[in-house]
Amino acid sequence: MMDEMEEPAAEFDEQDLIPISALEHYAYCLRQAALIHVEMVWDENLYTQRGRFVHEIVDRRRRLRRMAQQCKNFGQRVQKSVFECEVNEMQFEGLIRALVKIIHKEDDSLRIYRLTEPLEKNVRVFGWDKKVDFSQPLLV
Question: pTM for the complete prediction?
Answer without folding.
Answer: 0.49
